[in-house]
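2024-03-11 09:14:02 INFO worker-7 job=invfold-0412 stage=load source=structure_tokens
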């Protein structure tokens, strides 16, 4: 079953649920902002910050990629005109990927299924926000289809534009920056001059470069916890928590489905049947369970079957430690600090206290079964200095 079929089946079952048991469609409990900050290591935050909404609607948060050639991938400039021709040298088909309200990895999976192309043949520079409208370059290496054939496929909340033939591809990090257009809906009116001074201060002095809640799993806020379990070597616990851990912040039907699945495990056939009621929401869980049907005792193998998720979990745990460090050392930070996932033990000495507390000092050994997690030296900026293009305060009518 591909993503589109899973979505359609789930919508049909959601409609039945709405008719028979609408209470199960109630949203989960809302998270308190301060609790979120504490959970993801953001302990040094201004206490007098203005209250308001970010991302109330996808159009409130627009992300446009700035490529290594310093060009902006725009959301408001669609085109189906093909640039260049395919030949022996130019066999990569480039597109602008514009998506609304979905994660990058889900968009790429839908595209890969639609064109029967392995996901690893689609190059991209980075994951873009899900609760947003975003635009970025993607590259299809050795694309067997023409741009015209690509356009015959229609996607929900995904658009492909500006096709061009070229060579090469994209790797993670192959971009200069992102351009953000952000609408903040505040509780009270803010004077333009006051806001201008705040933005000027941020531009001049920077702000701590925290990884935000989306890196840690959105409402469920569990990806760093799964990553920590794997770093500790508790692979079975990581798998079971991923499949069955319920959160009061998830929708009622999601909580109920996980509880039902847990009650019958390890009867993986029945677990599969339960998750198949909502195959779009539980798509990753179903991939792990499908592996367990044939190898019920190989929990590492089941994790490898969802390697895209395990990679995200590992990054999330590394991001948690990064957040904790810059939060606790905010007054005396170098320009950059190493990230956790490196083989250079000297570089990760700054995290030793946290790793000891978490009983994860042997994370390199515990990650060794997951060859797709590449340990290499990387550093992240401790502050960002956003460039200001324009600001405007608007009063609601």
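2024-03-11 09:14:09 INFO worker-7 stage=emit residues=397
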């Amino acid at each position: 079953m591909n993503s589109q079929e899973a979505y359609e089946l789930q919508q049909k079952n959601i409609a039945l649920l709405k008719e028979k048991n609408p209470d199960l469609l109630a949203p989960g409990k809302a998270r308190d902002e301060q609790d979120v900050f504490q959970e993801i290591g953001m302990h040094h935050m201004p206490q007098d910050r203005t209250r308001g909404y970010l991302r109330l609607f996808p159009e409130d948060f627009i992300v446009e990629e700035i490529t290594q050639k310093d060009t902006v991938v725009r959301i408001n400039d669609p085109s189906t005109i093909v640039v260049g021709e395919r030949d022996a040298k130019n066999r990569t088909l480039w597109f602008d990927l514009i998506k609304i309200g979905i994660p990058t990895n889900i968009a790429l999976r839908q595209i890969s299924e639609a064109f029967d192309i392995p996901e690893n043949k689609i190059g991209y520079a980075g994951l873009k926000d899900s609760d947003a409208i975003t635009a970025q370059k993607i590259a299809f290496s050795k694309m067997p289809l023409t741009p015209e054939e690509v356009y015959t496929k229609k996607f929900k909340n995904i658009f492909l534009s500006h096709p061009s033939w070229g060579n090469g591809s994209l790797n993670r990090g192959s971009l200069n920056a992102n351009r953000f257009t952000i609408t903040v809906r505040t509780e009270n009116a803010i004077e333009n001059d006051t806001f201008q001074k705040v933005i000027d201060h941020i531009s001049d002095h920077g702000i701590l470069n925290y990884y935000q809640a989306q890196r840690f799993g959105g409402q469920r806020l569990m990806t760093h916890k799964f990553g920590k379990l794997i770093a500790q070597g508790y692979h079975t616990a990581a798998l079971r928590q991923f499949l069955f851990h319920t959160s009061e912040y998830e929708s009622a039907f999601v909580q109920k489905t996980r509880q039902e699945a847990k009650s019958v495990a390890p009867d993986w056939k029945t677990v599969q049947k339960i998750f198949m009621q909502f195959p779009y929401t539980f798509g990753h869980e179903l991939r792990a369970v499908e592996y367990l049907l044939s190898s019920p005792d190989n929990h590492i193998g089941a994790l490898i079957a969802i390697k895209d998720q395990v990679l995200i979990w590992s990054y999330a745990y590394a991001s948690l430690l990064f957040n904790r460090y810059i939060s606790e050392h905010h007054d005396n930070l170098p320009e950059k600090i190493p990230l956790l996932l490196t083989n250079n033990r000297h570089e990760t000495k700054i995290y030793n206290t946290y790793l000891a507390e978490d009983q994860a000092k042997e994370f390199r050994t515990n990650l060794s079964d997951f060859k797709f997690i590449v340990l290499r030296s990387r550093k992240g900026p401790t502050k960002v200095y956003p460039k200001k293009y324009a600001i405007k305060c608007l009063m609601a009518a």
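2024-03-11 09:14:09 INFO worker-7 stage=report msg="The first strand starts at residue 52 and ends at 54."
2024-03-11 09:14:10 INFO worker-7 job finished
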